[in-house]
């Protein structure tokens, strides 16, 4: 039994009828519940719940302060390579895109690490494209060993690995992983991933639980908002974290709700997800999973990111660069996507303090 | 007669213990410690960054307080032991609050692993304060393993739900020789006061202070509540009567 089997239980579920049946009284009752069921979570994602955002926000804010405090963890991504063998239609690293492909040498990783560490950050997220030949697990492990000297937490956002491979990374000090399913709808998934290893839906879907079984401690999942109806996608993302938390109680689960951004290749979003929609998603998730993390990337602009503080966000990226080796070299190639909030770590920290939040630079210790 | 709490050979200035997480800024900590008079403050080793200069939480802990590092993030005894040793090596002293949690939904402690960690660390000379689910037998084993005090939870951590485990903690206070410190879940000063009236040796709070609109004022309120509760305990409150005493007793004629 894996999450794939769990998802299949929703085959044929009539979301439209369910949403149509949700009443204002249901929403009011659910907001005040101690523990929400999956159906409650779905009700909070309904169009009806959209007129209750203020009440949901008050509850979400209270739960977030209670469980995470007035504190937000800061981290930054480091792109190790942009070699890829996939043709995900929405991504700048698509093999069809004319883009200079490169990967960092271990010396370059060290140089980037030194540059990032100057900001005081201790949590880093490393990324590669999906290319097992150019960036094998052994390469990711070697890079992690270099980074370990500068950071106390390393998370990976790479292609789907086997359990043994995740264990190999955990052994060299990787404690977190992020895996975007992109879209939980299997048919749309097939359509958007025409070529490459990422085509295998189930292999990707089950990657987070393989990582958990291998001893990875913090797991972030998510859907790329804009690829399908956001309400059902948000629901399945929440159900995925609920599944993981139940199966692996010692794992710290989180979601990230990225919206599509302009990128090389220019695939337009299928669905426009508004600010209010995204807020509804974050609030519903906070009420459903009071201790679940919510990561907000620099795909969103500074003003929106600042306003989302306190509604449930627990981690934010800062000083972001989506180019391979962009920090030490100052190169300006097209990255994986355009970033929208270009503030440095110091500027983000200052913004957090000014809004009554503590920027947390370190919340993990490698043993 | 002096009424000082002594743990691990150290006489504490107060019976209020504080947490250090969740504040909007670490710079608030000295003012909260001062206002509350807290004697001990716990810090998660995972948050300590000796290289961080002013951002390092340890630079904000007043010298008037005993620093009690905790093993937040540990899932078993072995991890708790490694974190404790790391804390000692980093100059955080010999006190350690053992926190072993492998359930991230409710953050309930694992008593079995906590007993094991207590045994190892007490043997290494640490002053061990285990955080635990209130259970008399488990607490006795922690005492045998060398704990300096026992810290049962009042309600699940971070919930502000109040003193929900009252009956179990009451029995622990009656039966254990060691100080019993109610840790976690206490949301209001009145609840901290109630713990103290019952005979708890101390109370540890974090979320209740950190999530208040004015954490410094709330810290002060907790300090006062803990002192009042202790004073009431020492004063020996009169027994609670089930019903009012009739001024004309029904059996008065027997004494005529």
Describe the structure in your own words.
The complex is a heterodimer of chains A (367) and B (256). Chain A has helices at 3-8, 15-21, 24-31, 38-44, 53-68, 106-117, 137-148, 163-171, 186-192, 201-205, 207-213, 230-247, 275-288, 302-308, 326-329, 345-354, and strands at 71-79, 123-127, 153-157, 174-182, 218-223, 252-255, 293-296, 315-317, 358-360. With 367 residues, chain A is of the alpha/beta class. Chain A has an eight-stranded parallel β-barrel, surrounded by five helices. In chain A, helix 4 runs antiparallel to helix 13, helix 6 (106-117) packs parallel to helix 7 and helix 12 runs parallel beside helix 13 (275-288). The longest helix of chain A has 18 residues, at 230-247. Chain A is globular, with a radius of gyration of 20 Å. The relative contact order of chain A is 0.17. Chain B has eight helices and ten strands. In chain B, helix 1 (29-36) packs parallel to helix 8, helix 3 (111-123) packs parallel to helix 4 and helix 6 (189-198) runs parallel beside helix 8. Chains A and B meet through helix 5 and strand 9 of A and helix 2 of B.
Q: How helix-rich are the residues of chain A, as a percent range? A: 40-55%
- Pair with the most extensive interface? A-B, 29 and 32 residues
Structural class of chain A: alpha/beta
- Percentage of β-strand residues of chain B: 15-25%
Specify Rg of chain A, calculated over alpha carbons.
20 Å
Sequence of secondary-structure elements of chain A: HHHHHEHEHEHEHHHEHEHEHEHHE
**From N to C, what is the helix and strand string of chain B?**
EEEHEEHEHEHEHEHEHH
Largest sheet of chain B: 5 strands, parallel
Q: What is the total tally of β strands of chain A? A: 9
* Quaternary structure of the protein: heterodimer
What is the topology, as strand order, of the major beta sheet of chain A?
1-2-3-4-5-6-7-8
What is the share of helical residues of chain B? 25-40%
Unreliable stretches of chain A, pLDDT < 50, 5 or more residues? none
Q: Mean of the pLDDT scores of chain A?
A: 92
Average residue pLDDT of chain B: 90
Distance between the termini of chain A: 32 Å
**% residues in beta strands of chain A:** 5-15%
Tertiary shape of chain B: globular
């Amino acid at each position: 039994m894996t999450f794939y089997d769990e998802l299949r239980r929703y085959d044929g579920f009539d979301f439209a009828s369910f949403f149509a049946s949700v009443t204002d009284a249901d929403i009011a009752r659910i907001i005040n519940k101690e523990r929400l069921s999956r159906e409650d979570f779905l009700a909070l994602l309904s169009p009806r719940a959209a007129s209750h955002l203020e009440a949901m926000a008050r509850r979400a804010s209270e739960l977030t302060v209670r469980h995470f405090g007035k504190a937000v963890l800061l981290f930054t991504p480091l792109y190790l390579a942009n070699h890829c063998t996939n043709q995900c239609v929405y991504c700048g690293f698509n093999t069809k895109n004319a883009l200079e492909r490169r990967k960092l040498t271990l010396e370059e990783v060290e140089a980037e690490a030194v540059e990032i560490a100057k900001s005081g950050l201790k949590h880093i997220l490393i990324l590669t494209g999906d290319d097992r030949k150019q960036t094998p697990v052994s390469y990711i492990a070697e890079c992690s060993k270099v980074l370990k000297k500068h950071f106390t937490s390393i998370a990976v956002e790479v292609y789907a690995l086997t359990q043994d491979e995740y264990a190999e990374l955990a052994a060299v000090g990787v404690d977190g992983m992020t895996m975007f399913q992109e879209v939980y709808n299997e048919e749309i998934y097939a359509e958007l991933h025409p070529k490459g290893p990422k085509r295998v839906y189930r292999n990707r879907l089950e990657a987070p639980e393989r990582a958990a079984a291998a001893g990875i401690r913090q797991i972030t999942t998510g859907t790329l908002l804009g690829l399908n109806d956001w309400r059902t996608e948000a629901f399945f993302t929440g159900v995925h974290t609920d599944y993981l938390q139940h199966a692996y109680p010692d794992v710290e689960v989180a979601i990230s709700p990225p919206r599509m951004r302009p990128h090389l290749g220019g695939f337009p979003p299928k669905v426009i997800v508004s600010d209010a929609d995204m807020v509804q998603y974050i609030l519903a998730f906070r009420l459903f999973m009071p201790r679940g993390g919510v990561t907000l990337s620099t795909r969103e602009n500074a003003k929106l990111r600042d306003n989302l503080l306190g509604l449930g966000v627990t981690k934010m990226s800062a000083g972001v660069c989506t180019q391979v080796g962009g920090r030490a070299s100052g190169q300006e190639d097209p990255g994986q996507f355009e970033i929208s909030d270009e503030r440095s770590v110091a500027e983000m920290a200052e913004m957090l303090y000014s809004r009554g939040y503590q920027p947390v630079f370190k919340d993990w210790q490698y043993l | 007669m002096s009424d000082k709490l002594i743990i691990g050979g150290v006489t504490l200035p107060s019976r209020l213990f504080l947490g250090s997480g969740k504040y909007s800024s670490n710079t608030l900590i000295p003012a909260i410690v001062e206002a509350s008079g807290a004697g001990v403050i716990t810090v998660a080793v995972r948050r300590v960054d000796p290289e961080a200069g002013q951002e390092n939480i340890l630079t904000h802990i007043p010298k008037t307080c005993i620093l009690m590092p905790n093993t937040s993030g540990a899932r078993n005894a072995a991890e708790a032991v490694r974190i404790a040793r790391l804390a000692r090596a980093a100059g955080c002293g010999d006190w350690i609050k053992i926190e072993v949690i492998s359930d991230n939904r409710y953050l309930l402690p694992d008593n079995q692993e906590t007993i094991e960690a207590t045994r190892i660390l007490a043997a290494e000379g640490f002053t061990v304060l285990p955080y635990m689910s209130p259970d008399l037998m488990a607490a006795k084993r922690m005492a045998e393993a060398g704990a300096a005090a026992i810290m049962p939870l009042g309600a699940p951590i971070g919930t502000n739900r109040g003193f929900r485990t009252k009956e179990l903690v009451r029995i622990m206070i009656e039966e254990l020789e060691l100080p019993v410190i109610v840790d976690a879940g206490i949301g209001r000063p009145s609840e901290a006061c109630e713990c103290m009236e019952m005979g708890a040796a101390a109370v540890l709070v974090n979320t209740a202070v950190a999530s208040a609109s004015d954490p410094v004022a709330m810290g002060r309120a907790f300090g006062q509540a803990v002192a009042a509760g202790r004073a009431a305990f020492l004063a020996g409150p009169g027994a609670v009567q089930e019903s009012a005493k009739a001024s004309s007793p029904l059996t008065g004629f027997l004494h005529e």
